[in-house]
Amino acid sequence: MSFRLIEWLCGLPTRLAVAAAMLASAILASAGLVMVHRLIPHRMRSGHNDVAGFTIGIAGVVYAVLLAFIAVAVWQGYGQADAVVQTEANLVDNLYRDTAGLPDPQASNVRHTLYVYAETVVQDEWPAMAAGLEEDAAGWQLLDSVHLELVQLHPQDLGTATVQAHMLLALTDLYNARRGRFHSAVVELPQVLWWNLLAGAALLLVFSCLFGAPNFIMHAATVSLLGMSIGLVLVLILLLTHPFEGDNHISAAAFNVLTRDVERMAYPHP
């Protein structure tokens, strides 16, 4: 599917994106019916209604299974992206709290860097992901600073060494969660799936046009409604495939809560 079309649809308010997809599908379905009506006489089509009905029943079931499978898959992907964001924020919060077991100035330095990291994610990375870009250099540099602070610490007691080891493990998980977030922002459905979805929709609509309905207006209304139903599911798949763009984007609320909680903690504020 064209990148510009995807970008345009994702940039629309949800209700307008859904309406545009349904309207476009209805127009295409109606235009297809007009073409079939002109090319194949009504008498010929009406004489094969039984065969057309049997065929469209099979084609409809196959296409419905394909649509349902992909819709469920992208919805699960959306949920996983949301979970990764929450995990990332939780790990930053946990690391911030764990600094209570470190000596100063390392503890203050790590707290400050983590606070700046949370602000960078919200103020820089989230708008970039919403625009389909990847603004990640500053965030990686901040986490690298935390890593250096921890590995350069030479604890003199077992308690501090235990906290250091625990924080390094948590930092590794934070790296993984961050990578997962950026992966979720750029992952796309394979082109073969889009081709199957669009070709299947076209075939199903052609089958519906091969009926010889007694009333052309009612036939056009039926075909248009079928097209709108397909367009509704296709736009759902498209919008969920881009979890950080558009009205339904995954919120940065987890990081906003994190920065608010940090300001209420008893530790020295960054």
Rg, nearest Å: 27 Å
Strand content: under 5%
Q: What is the string of helix and strand elements?
A: HHHHHHHHHH
What is the makeup of the main sheet?
none
Global geometry: rod-shaped
How many distinct beta strands?
0
> How far is the first residue's CA from the last residue's CA?
46 Å
| pLDDT averaged residue by residue | 84
TL;DR of this structure?
This protein is 80% helix and 0% strand. It has helices at residues 3-11, 14-39, 42-46, 49-98, 106-130, 137-151, 158-186, 191-209, 216-240, 253-264.
Set out the fold topology:
Layout: H1 3-11, H2 14-39, H3 42-46, H4 49-98, H5 106-130, H6 137-151, H7 158-186, H8 191-209, H9 216-240, H10 253-264
Helix pairs in contact: 2-8, 2-9, 4-5, 4-7, 4-8, 4-9, 4-10, 5-6, 5-10, 6-7, 8-9
Describe this structure in words.
The protein is rod-shaped. It is mainly alpha-helical and 270 residues long. The protein has one domain (3-264). The two termini are 46 Å apart. The chain is 80% helix and 0% strand. Helix 4 (49-98) packs antiparallel against helix 5.
Keywords:
270 residues; mainly alpha; 80% helix; rod-shaped
